[in-house]
């Protein structure tokens, strides 16, 4: 699942500084920050869509009945208490934790206690950790007096954090103030983790995602203990020993937790799994054997114990874990704790399940599905839900409508109606209400009414010149259309499939063999029904003929000029000819034997004429008309003066190259120490030679070029260095 990146610093500031002060609404701030949040009153948390939450927590469907999936269910959907049932008189008013030491859940008969007064976030995280995990646990923390690295933060959570465990951390808000927060870990991935957090009055629970990198950035050091704490229950995920890893990462395992033991008389019923899925009659004594013992009766008993709240795998294998859980059940129910399910223990477990029915949670189990039908076809939609005394009401919204309309008479879990063309694009959903008045809406399903399957535009006869491209096309309406073209050339008695030509429109360049060929298209819809188009005839003109003559062109000096000719015919060859303005005869343009030729002309090309002689395979010749190339004499310097080093007494030559019309040159110099340039008298050629004296050392030179229109352009500056003599390696000395 693609995760929305959030600023954890802002999240924390919002959840602790703002929300605990009661100043702002968590919903408004979460939305404005683009925060991924699933909000719901904790007393009504069972109404939240479980599949949506599991998706947020990255839990696969196969994990629904696993320990991970069930613990997430416990965290988010199990509690039934209301704010008024929570210990601490000021909780609802202020939520600052004045005197909160326990939480009582009247629906489960469960009380969870801790040693000292706590804030709302700590109370919620402790409730979840103790109730779900069922153990006091130990505190795993980062180094004292040191903010951990990103890798250490990631390692700590990935090594120790299981669903429902309490994470506590010390951090700085954006304003720089120091504070602390507690959350309940849900699930994680390679980049970050999801957590549940209490925020705002009335114990509103929100779910968020945070990157490891973001969490690390806002941590601060807590004097005397680590800045990141985890109330771990089993020494690491999958109950792996963590001694070596803890040592390597300099993390302390403090078994002296300040959390008191849980005041719970025993496990309480869960909502899943459904024990009826494995229900069998008692037929044998179940116990741990060397085999070990397996079967549906074992799975049924495990499912019953899991339903009753015991931590057990429903795998159908009677191993040591199952035997230990059975002993725990027997001990809780004043029975002989021998770990054997015999004629006394079996009915005792079934009676406990019967005496502790789980409250049905209003949940959409099967969503209505989108459907595509032909005009006059039947639209069927259905929804299934869990809950008590359910009633149904369907709503619809046709394409283009802004609001939903109650569908009169559609008050059952399914409907069947005949669709017409106005139904295309119509959306429907079902509102399910239970006996308490609570309601939940299904997802939308969309009705698509397909158009009548028919060809609306037939392929057309086409005449094309040899060497040119031609397109054939067909238009059809229907659902899920596919296309296949067929051809039959002149003289052939049968049709052939046109390989790879599977689009409504196809383009190709026919040769002479296609002259007189026929083409048609077979169209198929999603139901498998097919329709054949009419056949179109392709005519190919192959007589030698120039279809596009060369065109006059004007380019600036130094730019490319292109000339081309288009010809129909067979086996064509080309030869270009030219004639300058002062020449009476045409000359063969050597090497120019293509239909299109490109050249970079100089000024001598201005006004030149070109034409092309075309010959076909039969030897027939056709001459094109001629085109004129005009060259604008744009003034430009093509080669700049170069800086030079010369030995005293030797001659020095400086030069510049330029293109343009009627060019004139003037050189300028500036000796060392002078701030202005001086015209170099008599130096009016593109190339000038001089024997410099010592005063030339360090002198600068440039040339100004002017064309016949008066336009001028200056060259770059060249630097002159004059040396008194050469070293032995012929390099200038000095």
| Percentage of residues in helical conformation | 10-25%
Shape: flat
Structural class: alpha+beta
Strand order of the largest sheet: 1-8-7-6-5-9-4-10
How would a textbook summarize the main sheet? Answer: 8 strands, antiparallel
Number of strands: 52
Textual characterization of the structure:
- The chain has 734 residues and is of the alpha+beta class.
- It is 16% helix and 33% strand.
- It is built from 12 helices and 52 strands.
- The strands form 15 sheets. It has an 8-stranded antiparallel sheet, sandwiched between helices.
- A hairpin with a 5-residue loop joins strand 30 (517-524) and strand 31 (530-532).
- Helix 7 packs across helix 8 (212-218) and helix 10 (296-307) packs across helix 12 (345-355).
- It is flat, with a radius of gyration of 44 Å.
- The protein starts with 7 loop residues before the first helix and ends in an 11-residue tail after the last strand.
- Residues 1-69, 77-99, 105-109 and 238-266 have low confidence and may be disordered.
Write the layout of secondary structure elements.
Layout: H1 8-18, H2 26-32, E1 40-41, H3 50-56, H4 67-78, H5 91-94, E2 102-105, E3 110-113, H6 120-133, E4 138-141, H7 150-160, E5 166-172, E6 178-188, E7 192-199, E8 204-211, H8 212-218, E9 228-232, H9 243-248, E10 252-254, E11 293-294, H10 296-307, E12 317-318, H11 320-332, H12 345-355, E13 363-366, E14 371-373, E15 378-382, E16 384-386, E17 391-397, E18 405-406, E19 414-418, E20 426-433, E21 439-441, E22 445-449, E23 454-457, E24 462-465, E25 470-473, E26 475-477, E27 482-488, E28 496-497, E29 505-508, E30 517-524, E31 530-532, E32 536-541, E33 545-548, E34 553-556, E35 561-564, E36 566-568, E37 573-579, E38 587-588, E39 596-599, E40 608-615, E41 621-623, E42 627-632, E43 636-639, E44 644-647, E45 652-655, E46 657-659, E47 664-670, E48 678-679, E49 687-690, E50 700-706, E51 712-714, E52 718-723
Helix pairs in contact: 7-8, 10-12
């Amino acid at each position: 699942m693609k995760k929305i990146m959030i600023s954890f610093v802002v999240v924390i500031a919002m959840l602790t500084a703002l929300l605990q002060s009661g100043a702002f609404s968590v919903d408004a701030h979460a939305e404005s920050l683009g925060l991924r949040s699933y909000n719901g009153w904790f007393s009504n948390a069972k109404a939240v869509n479980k599949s949506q939450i599991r998706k947020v927590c990255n839990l696969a469907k196969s994990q629904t009945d696993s320990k991970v999936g069930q613990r997430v269910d416990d965290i988010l959907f199990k509690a039934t208490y209301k704010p008024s049932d929570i210990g601490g008189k000021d909780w609802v008013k202020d939520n600052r934790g004045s005197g909160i030491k326990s939480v009582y859940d009247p629906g489960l008969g469960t009380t969870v206690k801790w040693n000292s007064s706590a804030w709302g976030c700590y109370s919620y995280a402790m409730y979840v950790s103790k109730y779900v995990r069922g153990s006091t646990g130990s505190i795993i923390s980062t180094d004292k007096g040191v903010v951990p690295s990103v890798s250490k933060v990631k390692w700590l959570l990935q090594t120790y954090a299981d669903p429902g465990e309490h994470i506590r951390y010390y951090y700085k808000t954006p304003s720089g103030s120091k504070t602390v927060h507690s959350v309940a870990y849900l699930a994680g991935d390679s980049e970050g983790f999801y957590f549940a957090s209490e925020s705002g009055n009335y114990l509103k629970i929100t779910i968020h995602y945070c990157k490891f990198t973001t969490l690390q950035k806002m941590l601060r050091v807590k004097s005397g203990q680590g800045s990141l704490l985890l109330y771990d229950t089993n020494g690491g995920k999958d109950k792996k020993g963590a001694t070596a890893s803890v040592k390597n990462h300099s993390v302390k395992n403090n078994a002296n937790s300040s959390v008191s033991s849980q005041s719970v008389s025993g496990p309480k019923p869960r909502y899943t799994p459904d024990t009826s899925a494995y229900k069998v009659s008692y037929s044998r004594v179940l116990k741990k054997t060397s085999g070990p013992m397996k079967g549906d009766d074992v799975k049924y008993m495990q499912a019953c114990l899991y339903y009753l709240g015991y931590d057990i795998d429903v795998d159908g294998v009677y191993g040591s874990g199952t035997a230990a859980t059975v002993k725990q059940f027997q001990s809780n129910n004043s029975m002989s704790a021998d770990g054997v399910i015999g004629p006394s223990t079996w009915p005792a477990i079934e009676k406990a399940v019967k005496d502790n029915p789980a409250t049905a949670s209003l949940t959409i189990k099967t969503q209505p599905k989108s459907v595509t039908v032909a005009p006059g076809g039947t639209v069927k939609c259905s929804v299934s839900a869990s809950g008590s005394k359910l009633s149904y009401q369907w709503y619809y919204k046709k394409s283009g409508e802004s609001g939903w309309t109650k569908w009169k008479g559609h008050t059952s879990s399914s409907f069947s109606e005949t669709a017409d063309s106005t139904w295309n694009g119509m959306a429907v959903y079902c509102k399910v209400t239970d006996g308490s008045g609570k309601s939940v809406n299904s997802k939308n399903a969309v009705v698509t009414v397909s158009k009548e399957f028919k060809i609306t535009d037939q392929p057309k006869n086409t005449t094309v010149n040899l060497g040119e491209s031609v397109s054939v096309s067909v238009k059809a309406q229907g659902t899920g259309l596919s296309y296949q073209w067929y051809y039959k050339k002149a003289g052939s008695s049968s049709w052939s499939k046109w390989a790879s030509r599977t689009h409504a429109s196809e383009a190709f360049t026919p040769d002479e063999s296609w002259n007189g060929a026929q083409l048609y298209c077979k169209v198929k819809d999603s139901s498998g029904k097919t329709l054949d188009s009419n056949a179109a005839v392709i005519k190919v003109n192959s007589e030698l003929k120039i279809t596009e003559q060369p065109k006059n062109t004007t380019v600036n000096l130094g730019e490319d000029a292109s000339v081309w000719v288009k010809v129909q015919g067979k086996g064509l060859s080309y030869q270009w000819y030219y004639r300058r303005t002062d020449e009476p005869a045409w000359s063969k343009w050597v090497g120019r034997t293509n239909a299109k030729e490109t050249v970079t002309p100089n000024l001598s090309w201005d006004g030149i004429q070109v034409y092309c002689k075309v010959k076909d395979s039969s030897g027939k010749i056709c001459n094109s008309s001629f085109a004129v190339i005009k060259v604008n004499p744009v003034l430009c310097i093509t080669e700049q003066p170069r800086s030079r080093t010369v030995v005293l007494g030797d001659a020095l030559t400086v030069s510049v190259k330029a293109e343009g019309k009627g060019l004139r040159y003037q050189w300028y110099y500036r000796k060392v120490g002078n701030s202005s340039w001086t015209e170099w008298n008599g130096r009016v050629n593109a190339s000038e030679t001089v024997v410099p004296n010592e005063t030339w050392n360090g002198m600068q030179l440039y040339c100004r070029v002017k064309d016949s229109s008066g336009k001028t352009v200056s060259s770059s500056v060249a630097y002159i260095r004059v040396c008194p003599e050469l070293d032995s390696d012929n390099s200038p000395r000095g």
